[in-house]
């Protein structure tokens, strides 16, 4: 169900809207009935009637806007909210539920708790603001030093890929635990820093919770189009606008009006450039179970192709060792498709040799709607692959 | 020309495999059987002059309701030259037997037939990936329906997966078939678009599933 808002500006328009009330078979539910000129009319329209209603309005030149794109999602959210408020909020990151999907606010709260519990290891940086003015937070894990060689990990750049943000939360906790137990990545933290951006596209993430679970892009509006959003993984300055991205703002792979037009992208670009010492960059997506290295925008292999291929083989073997999850690996363009303006093509061209993209579980059975009980197994196995990459970066300085 | 070996990680092999799996789901899937690709073992491609591109695949499949068992099969997927409006030709040979679903099918059939009101459901799975157990057979029938749509609409430049069942409505019939009208959301990997598709499925425990002509 969608909720449409109509603002009748003439008697003719008002009449057209009133006509809709008489069409019982459409099963329309007027949240705000037609009352007079200039007063909004809100209509809940069941899915099967959508096309007819829109056609009726458009044929008479009556303009409408989509107030709520998916009523069911709101209802679900409401019910979930009600359940949540009757449960106890997590008091610390030990009682936080890693086996569930969380809201934007819950994840921001998690970050603050993690920092508060580990002030000597974790700090929270704001690297910019989204289109809708949400903060873009990066967690920094560091045992000291000044601008040590660093590893960057981001999750949630495509907002519908929910297992990635959820895995990012798990990674954050895991890093802290390893450090406390002097195992795992503790040795990496002796000489390197880790930067983790868990919610790389907060506007999109919020939209997946309130309106459209399958929203991918940012929520920017660029002049000249009624369509919203730019694909943040086509907006980077590497083969920008070439084959492998779309110039149509109404498509899912719209590259945007120019490179780094999206604050979500520009903030990372600025961060990487000003840091200057990032040695490994991993951008995490779902789904398909792939480990990918550059390029996506050209068939020319990267100079470090052989080494990246070997590291990928090792990382994938480590991942599989836990639950038998099968991954394929290779360059973006040979393994998945041609894609221009992509994140790791840009980071590689900046000189960050160990640039990788993951596509996490699954291979299509649930796709973007991965059951919450698979969050922790996915994060656990992915972490083994990430450690291979981090250790290789540490052991092969450049 | 000769068939050329492809690495199983190559995107063209993966796309052809998705077509084969869609076709097989349409042919052999049902409320008690959902086939998933476990691994693509081998892929070869042959360019046939004036005809099109043919892929020879060796696949390992699993039944999502019986994950310990896998079954091997071979498939041939021929994408026609031009590909305008013509579905790829697909042949699949399953090695060995798929486990019987007779009992589950009969149970499902009688459960639905004895419903007082026609079944209606939405958002399968929901946002968190949940499928209520009593709706899992409907979910699997949606795989059958979308398998048909995927087979019919695939080209070498597409890779479709069922993203979600947006809406399903049972339609009571005077004959013995069960009828379900689906609105499915298909995720197309190359363009990344999510496309709503209306498709009707008729199903009977002995006759299997079919998508009527004008669906």
CATH class of the largest domain in chain B: Alpha Beta
Number of helical runs of chain A?
12
Q: How many distinct folded domains of chain B?
A: 2
The stretches of 5 or more residues of chain B where confidence is low (pLDDT under 50) are none
In the CATH hierarchy, what is the architecture of the largest domain in chain A at level 2?
Answer: 3-Layer(aba) Sandwich
Cofactor (chain A): Zn(2+)
Domain Peptidase M14 (chain A): 100-393
GO biological process, one term (chain A): proteolysis
EC number (chain A): 3.4.17.1
Explain what this protein looks like in three dimensions.
The complex is a heterodimer of chains A (398) and B (215). Chain A has helices spanning 11-22, 50-59, 71-85, 104-117, 162-181, 188-191, 202-210, 263-275, 305-323, 332-335, 343-349, 375-395; strands at residues 2-6, 29-32, 41-45, 64-68, 122-129, 135-141, 150-155, 193-197, 278-286, 290-293, 328-331, 354-360. Chain A has 398 residues and is of the alpha/beta class. Chain A has two domains: 2-69, Alpha-Beta Plaits (2-Layer Sandwich), CATH 3.30.70.340; 78-216 and 237-395, 3-Layer(aba) Sandwich (Aminopeptidase). In chain A, the strands form two sheets. An eight-stranded mixed β-sheet of chain A has the order 5-6-8-7-9-12-10-11, sandwiched between helices. In chain A, strands 2-3-1-4 form a four-stranded antiparallel β-sheet, covered by helices on one side. The longest helix of chain A is centred in the C-terminal third of the chain and has 21 residues, at 375-395. The radius of gyration of chain A is 23 Å and the shape is elongated. The model of chain A has no long low-confidence stretch (mean pLDDT 92). Chain B is an alpha+beta fold. Chain B has helices at residues 11-28, 102-113, 136-153; strands at residues 4-6, 35-48, 52-63, 66-80, 89-94, 120-124, 160-171, 178-188, 194-204, 208-210. In chain B, the strands form two sheets. Chain B has a five-stranded antiparallel β-sheet with strand order 1-2-3-4-5. Chain B has a five-stranded antiparallel β-sheet with strand order 6-7-8-9-10. In chain B, a hairpin with a 5-residue loop joins strand 8 and strand 9 (194-204). The longest helix of chain B is centred in the first third of the chain and has 18 residues, at 11-28. Chain B is globular and about 60 Å long. The interface between A and B is large, with 36 and 35 residues.
């Amino acid at each position: 169900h969608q909720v449409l808002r109509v603002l009748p500006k003439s008697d003719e328009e008002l009449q057209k809207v009133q006509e809709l009330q008489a069409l019982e078979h459409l099963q329309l539910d007027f949240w705000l009935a037609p009352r007079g000129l200039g007063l909004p009319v809100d209509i809940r329209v069941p899915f099967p009637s959508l096309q007819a209603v829109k056609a009726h309005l458009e044929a008479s030149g009556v303009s409408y806007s989509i107030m709520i794109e998916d009523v069911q999602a709101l209802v679900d959210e409401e019910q979930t909210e009600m359940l949540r408020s009757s449960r106890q909020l997590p008091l610390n990151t030990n009682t936080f539920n890693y086996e569930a999907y969380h809201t934007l606010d819950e994840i921001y709260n998690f970050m603050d708790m993690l920092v508060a519990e580990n002030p000597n290891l974790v700090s929270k940086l704001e690297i910019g603001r989204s289109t809708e003015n949400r903060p873009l937070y990066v967690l920094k894990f560091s045992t000291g030093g000044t601008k040590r060689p660093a590893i960057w990990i981001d999750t949630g750049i495509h907002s519908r890929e929910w297992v990635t943000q959820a895995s990012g939360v798990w990674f954050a906790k895991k890093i802290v635990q390893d450090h406390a137990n002097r195992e795992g990545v503790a040795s990496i933290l002796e000489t390197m820093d880790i930067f983790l951006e868990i919610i790389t596209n907060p506007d999109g993430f919020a939209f997946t919770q309130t309106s459209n679970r399958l929203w991918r892009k940012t929520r920017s509006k660029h002049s000249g189009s009624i369509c919203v959003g730019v694909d943040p993984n086509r907006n980077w300055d590497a083969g920008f606008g070439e084959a492998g991205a779309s110039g149509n703002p109404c498509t899912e792979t719209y590259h945007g009006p120019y490179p780094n037009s999206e604050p979500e992208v520009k903030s990372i670009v600025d961060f990487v450039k000003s840091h200057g010492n990032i040695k490994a960059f991993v951008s995490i997506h779902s789904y398909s179970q792939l480990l990918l290295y550059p390029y996506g925008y050209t068939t020319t292999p990267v100079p470090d192709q052989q080494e990246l291929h070997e590291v990928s083989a090792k990382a994938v073997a480590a991942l599989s060792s836990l639950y038998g999850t099968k991954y394929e690996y290779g360059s973006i363009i040979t393994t998945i498709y041609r894609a221009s303006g992509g994140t790791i093509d840009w980071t590689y061209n900046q000189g960050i040799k160990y640039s990788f993209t993951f596509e996490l579980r699954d291979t299509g059975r649930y796709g973007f709607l991965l059951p919450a009980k698979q969050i922790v197994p996915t994060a656990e196995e992915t972490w083994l692959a990430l450690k291979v990459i981090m250790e290789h970066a540490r052991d092969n300085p450049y | 020309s000769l068939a050329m070996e492809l690495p199983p990680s190559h995107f063209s092999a993966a796309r052809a495999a998705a077509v084969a799996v869609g076709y097989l789901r349409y042919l052999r899937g049902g409320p008690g059987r959902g086939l998933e690709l476990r691994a693509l073992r081998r892929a070869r491609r042959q360019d046939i002059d004036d005809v099109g591109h043919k892929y020879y695949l060796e696949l390992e499949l699993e039944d999502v309701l019986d994950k310990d068992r896998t079954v091997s099969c071979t498939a041939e997927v021929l994408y026609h030259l031009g590909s305008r409006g013509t579905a790829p030709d697909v042949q699949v040979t399953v090695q060995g037997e798929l486990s019987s679903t007779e009992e589950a099918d009969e149970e499902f059939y009688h459960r639905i037939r004895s419903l007082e009101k026609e079944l209606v459901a939405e958002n399968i799975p929901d946002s968190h990936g949940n499928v209520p157990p009593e709706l899992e057979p409907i979910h699997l029938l949606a795989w059958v329906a979308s398998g048909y749509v995927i087979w019919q609409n695939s080209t070498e430049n597409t890779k479709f997966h069922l993203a979600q069942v947006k809406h399903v409505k049972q339609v009571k019939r005077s004959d013995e078939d069960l009828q379900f009208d689906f609105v499915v959301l298909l995720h197309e990997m190359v363009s990344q678009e999510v496309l709503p598709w209306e498709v009707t499925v008729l199903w009977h425990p002995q006759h299997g599933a079919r998508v009527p002509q004008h669906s």
